[in-house]
Amino acid sequence: MNRPPLHALLGFATAARTSNLTRAAEQMHLTVSALSHQIRTLEERLGRRLFERGPRGVTLTADGERLLSVVAPHLDALDHALRPYSPRRDDVLTLSLMASMASSWLVPRLGSFVALYPQLELNLFSSAALVDFDREPGIDAAMRGGYGRWPGLVIEHLFDETLVPVASPALVERMGGLPAQDDLHRWPLLGDLSTYWQDWFDRYGGGKRPTRFVAHFDDSETMHRAAVEGLGVALGRLARTRLLIRSGQLVPLSQGRLKIDWGHYLVYPQRSVDHGGLESFRTWLHQQARAYIDQMESDLATREVASTDDGACGLPDAPAAAKPRRKRR
């Protein structure tokens, strides 16, 4: 028997994994008819039917299952071995990051980057999962949130996360106005003491403890959205809630801010160290991070002056509608 061609085996494995000839053909940059011809040729050479074709795709036969179990590990090993030799374009940069960080922090700033580097094509892939650079050679770098411990990667710190209690203007109105610094424990809170609320009340709560947690969420974006809808007070991440504060959808309830050891980072594998596009992006990104830190410090100083003058809470540039008057006690 003549040895089956490698491209036919690759087409077979791709179709088996996608269970769809159209998607498999797209991944291989082939027409569906060309891929179908490869699979038919392979079936004829082996003298076995490998797929059952149906209206919703293809499924492996018993012979197809056995063949896939034998060839798939070898194809994966070849793919892994050839990845370091894949061509790379320095004018195309592919970045992975969480959708929330993209929409709330990076994308509003990207206009200046595009203006500075119009020749560079930037591709953003949003995912909550950490990218595996070994398995995804097309991704050059990532923006991650965490504690800065990712072995085997180049790690560049951008800025630490800062937390502040935030609530919707509607909730502030229902509660009778902005709280005094030591009254926040009486408000409906989102989360629980296993989150950073414990640290918040230790530092800013005057030794008091919350009396009411109304809901707990396993991701910060859902919690922020619940705060916007008036469900309760979120201990918001400023990097992600600043635009909501500026637009008046959320109101800071305290002058105090809690800086935590959870930060934002740019990370990339060793293969991207000399990527020309990444070098331009990282220079710009660090400039944006420094400007963001400076703005946070300026906001804090302005709030401290404002609190001395009139007792106001919140960011100085929040819309007037988002700054209800403190309830007289």
Describe this structure in a few short sentences.
The protein has two domains: 6-85, Winged helix-like DNA-binding domain superfamily/Winged helix DNA-binding domain (Arc Repressor Mutant, subunit A, Orthogonal Bundle); 86-329, D-Maltodextrin-Binding Protein, domain 2 (3-Layer(aba) Sandwich).
**Total E-strand runs:** 11
Helix count from the secondary structure assignment: 11
CATH fold annotation of the largest domain: D-Maltodextrin-Binding Protein, domain 2
Low-confidence stretches: 304-329
* CATH class category label of the largest domain: Alpha Beta
Number of domains: 2
Largest β sheet strand count, sense and barrel closure: 7 strands, mixed
Calculate the terminal CA-CA distance, rounded to whole Å.
92 Å
Q: What is the share of helical residues?
A: 40-55%
| Strand residue percentage | 15-25%
Order of helices and strands: HHHEEHEHHEEEHEHEHEHEEH
Class derived from helix and strand content: alpha/beta
Shape: elongated
CATH second-level architecture of the largest domain: 3-Layer(aba) Sandwich
Oligomer: single chain
- Rg result: 27 Å
Mean pLDDT: 85
